[in-house]
């Protein structure tokens, strides 16, 4: 690790203590995610870190959110957990035609946390490092106006930005219909530049070939030209369902 990074980490720890919190128990890779997310500014990274600690303590039980708390959302069968991709990251696939705007905003937020936590946890090998990332795919095939949920998309990406900094490796949008373009433009107003740079809208044959190459046939389900079977996230059994953070 470069000397400048070590200095930034030291300043981050000091700034966190000034905010009446502590970085004890958190490894360098975890702290570096917050620094990178805030352009290596220790004070801004410290605020983000402490805000995340408070949010995590109020939102998520120590052992993660159980299936029973998000069963209503799971029953739609809209989230699949695949992977690892060619880059070694777990792949979360969202079948948007099976999604409908949630009636309960709090439960939907819990569902987003459940999905992100379990996806990240599935990529942990032996011991959590702290810098594990995920790849997301939103399949918009066959969606209708009933499936449109700008608020749900915004919530999901804002959670990624605020509480899972530098966890997103890449995000692919497949089969985007014309009527969804205006919705997506609206959603993008709420996305940070660094998040938008990781999103690829797959529109033509050349981009589709590149998408398949980057994901890899072993992680890509058969329905998308790969060799893997679609696996619902609730059917994936893990030693732990949430990263220890």
UniProtKB/TrEMBL annotation:
Pfam families: CRAL_TRIO (PF00650). CDD domains: SEC14. InterPro entries: CRAL-TRIO_dom, CRAL-TRIO_dom_sf, CRAL/TRIO_N_dom_sf. Residues 67-232 form the CRAL-TRIO domain. This is CRAL-TRIO domain-containing protein YKL091C.
């Amino acid at each position: 690790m470069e000397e400048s990074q070590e200095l930034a980490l030291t300043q981050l720890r000091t700034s966190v203590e000034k905010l009446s919190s502590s970085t004890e128990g958190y490894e360098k890779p975890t702290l570096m995610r917050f620094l990178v997310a805030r352009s290596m500014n220790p004070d801004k990274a410290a605020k983000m870190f402490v805000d995340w600690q408070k949010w995590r303590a109020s939102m998520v039980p120590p052992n993660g959110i159980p299936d029973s708390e998000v069963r209503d959302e799971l029953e739609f069968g809209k989230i699949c957990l695949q992977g690892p991709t060619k880059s070694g990251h777990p792949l979360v696939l969202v079948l948007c035609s099976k999604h409908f705007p949630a009636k309960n905003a709090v439960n939907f937020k819990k569902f987003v946390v459940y999905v992100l936590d379990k996806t990240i946890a599935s990529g942990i090998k032996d011991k959590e490092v702290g810098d594990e990332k995920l790849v997301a795919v939103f399949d918009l095939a066959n969606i209708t106006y009933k499936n449109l949920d700008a608020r749900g998309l915004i919530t999901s990406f804002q959670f990624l930005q605020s509480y899972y900094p530098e966890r997103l490796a890449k995000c692919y949008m497949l089969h985007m219909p014309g009527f969804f373009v205006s919705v997506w433009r609206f959603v993008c107003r709420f996305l940070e530049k660094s998040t938008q740079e990781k999103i690829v809208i797959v529109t033509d044959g050349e981009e589709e070939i590149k998408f398949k190459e980057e994901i890899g046939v072993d992680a890509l389900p058969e329905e998308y030209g790969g060799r893997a079977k679609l696996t619902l996230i609730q059917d994936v059994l893990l030693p732990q369902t949430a990263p220890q953070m």
